[in-house]
Design goal:
The complex is a heterodimer. By secondary structure, chain A is mainly β. Helix content of chain A is about 0%, strand content about 45%. In chain A, the strands form 2 sheets. In chain A, strands 1, 3, 4, 7, 8 and 9 form a 6-stranded mixed beta sheet that branches. Chain A has a 3-stranded antiparallel beta sheet with strand order 2-6-5, with no helix packed on it. The termini of chain A are far apart. In chain B, a hairpin with a 4-residue loop joins strand 7 and strand 8. The N and C termini of chain B lie far apart (about 40 Å). The chains are: A mainly beta, B mainly beta. At the A-B interface, strand 3, strand 7 and strand 8 of A face strand 5 and strand 10 of B.
């Protein structure tokens, strides 16, 4: 299966909001509400930020939110903070009962 | 707090078999309800799902790797393992183990990752 499509990089200033898109097909993102988002700081393990499109695990800031429209899912981070600078990855369940990830987006806080 | 830790050789020769183990602490693999996964990241690339094993021993693999992958579990040691045969330089990557709470890609706990280089 092909990887989900994410922008290579996004940037924003502290306090601003940014959105990262994750585009797939009707066989993955569009077909299931099983999209997750992960944050990864250099040298660290990925951290689950959003699951099942829009749910936040306990302990994750409510500045992080997720949504989906058609074959595209989105992660929005509001009130950007320096600590949000990291790589972000989306993933989706697929019609083949497999899991597929996006290529990753590097977020820079200016 | 559940913790996962990968271990295994950091260097594997081409055509040989890559073997990694993930040790789980703070929770029992055999307690049920979770899917234990292997995921990798090639240098400078995105993440790639390799496959999972359920606590019962049932497995599911990425079709692109299925012919070369075996994931097994040792509940007595609270570990699960990855074997990838006939490796090439294209298998050089950071390998992660991760727990999925639902089987649909909700990876709530991850290991730190281990770099495996395939080179002679």
């Amino acid at each position: 299966q092909s990887a989900l499509t994410q922008p290579a990089s996004v940037s924003g200033s502290p306090g601003q909001s940014i959105t990262i898109s994750c585009t797939g097909t009707s066989s993955d993102v569009g077909g299931y509400n099983y999209v997750s988002w992960y944050q990864r700081h250099p040298g660290k393990a990925p951290k689950l930020m959003i699951y099942e499109v829009s749910n936040r695990p306990s302990g994750v800031s409510n500045r992080f939110s997720g949504s989906k429209s058609g074959n595209t899912a989105s992660l929005t981070i509001s009130g950007l903070q320096a600590e949000d600078e990291a790589d972000y990855y989306c993933s989706s369940y697929t019609s083949s009962s497999t899991l597929v990830f996006g290529g990753g987006t590097k977020l820079t806080v200016l | 707090q559940v913790q996962l830790q990968e271990s295994g050789p950091g260097l594997v020769k081409p055509s040989q078999t890559l073997s990694l183990t993930c040790t789980v602490s703070g929770g029992s693999i055999s307690s049920g309800g979770y899917y234990w996964n292997w995921i990798r990241q090639h240098p400078g690339k995105g993440l790639e799902w390799i496959g999972y094993i359920y606590y019962s021993g049932s497995t599911y693999y990425n079709p692109s790797l299925k012919s070369r992958v075996t994931i097994s579990v040792d509940t007595s040691k609270n570990q699960f393992s990855l074997k990838l045969s006939s490796v090439t330089a294209a298998d050089t990557a950071v390998y992660y183990c991760a727990r999925d709470g639902r089987g649909y890609g909700r990876f709530d706990y991850w290991g730190q990752g281990t770099l495996v280089t395939v080179s002679s």
